[in-house]
Specification:
- By secondary structure, this protein is an alpha/beta fold.
- Helix content is 48%, strand content 12%.
- It is built from ten helices and five strands.
- A five-stranded parallel β-sheet has the order 2-1-3-4-5, with helices on both faces.
- Strand 1, helix 1 and strand 2 form a beta-alpha-beta unit.
- Helix 7 packs across helix 10.
- The N and C termini lie far apart (42 Å).
């Protein structure tokens, strides 16, 4: 089955360019387009895409609010959101990740990165460009708690090793890098990550990273 993609951007030329790139791939199918957040919500309900390629700044409803409504509590549809951004809009990405986006990609990324990012998000892997995600969260640390706040009780549900894995996820390490750091197999790491998400009620690795920062478990800029 092809991955069903909805393109959301207020610039028609960009949507056309993305469509040309994606329709050249046998496993991707562009099922619709939208020029703003409100249209995106309508298209998601009507078309049931697997992945929504979401711009941030748009008229009527921006990409952050649209993402929140597509992936928020009570939503059980299959759609995952991949946010498109430019360097000068990075501050909005933190909010989009909090809203439920599964990852983000720069608008000037090469075509092969766009295609691979959609496949990764559709597969539920979610964490895109971990090192960039970490730098983004560090850069906009002002959006996040200082780390002096009381650690949430939910962290007490995690084992010592699970806390260790969560810290490494938040610092931008991939499963392979975590496995090498902890001298365990990638399968073991995947199991730990799965337990962390389940115990904390989180959707994916992106939300786990944001949670670790917001809870004060990992402080912005910490190594």
């Amino acid at each position: 089955m092809a991955i069903r993609v909805l393109l959301v951007d207020d610039q028609p030329l960009l949507r056309t360019g993305f469509r040309m790139i994606l329709e050249a791939e046998a496993d991707l199918a562009v099922v619709g387009e939208a020029g703003d957040g409100l249209q995106a919500l309508e298209q998601v309900r009507a078309l049931q895409p697997d992945v929504v390629l979401m711009d941030i700044r748009m008229p009527r409803m921006d990409g952050v609010e649209a993402t929140r409504q597509i992936t928020g509590p009570g939503r059980d549809g299959p759609a995952k959101v991949l946010v498109l951004t430019t360097f000068d809009l990075d501050e909005y990405v933190v909010e989009a990740l909090r809203a439920g986006a599964s990852g983000f990609l720069l608008k000037d990324a090469p075509a092969n990165e766009l295609v691979q990012a959609i496949r990764v998000v559709a597969a539920g892997e979610a964490m895109l460009a971990p090192s960039i995600t970490r730098r983004l969260l560090d850069k906009y640390a002002g959006h996040l708690p200082s780390g002096d706040e009381q650690v949430p009780d939910t962290l007490n549900t995690l084992t010592e090793r699970e806390v260790e894995v969560l810290k490494l996820v938040a610092r931008g390490l991939s499963n392979a890098e975590i496995a090498a750091d902890l001298f365990v197999s990638e399968t073991t790491v995947k199991t730990h990550v799965g337990h962390v998400l389940t115990k904390l009620g989180l959707r994916d690795r992106v939300q786990a990273a944001v949670y670790a920062y917001e809870s004060g478990l990992v402080r912005p800029g910490a190594q």
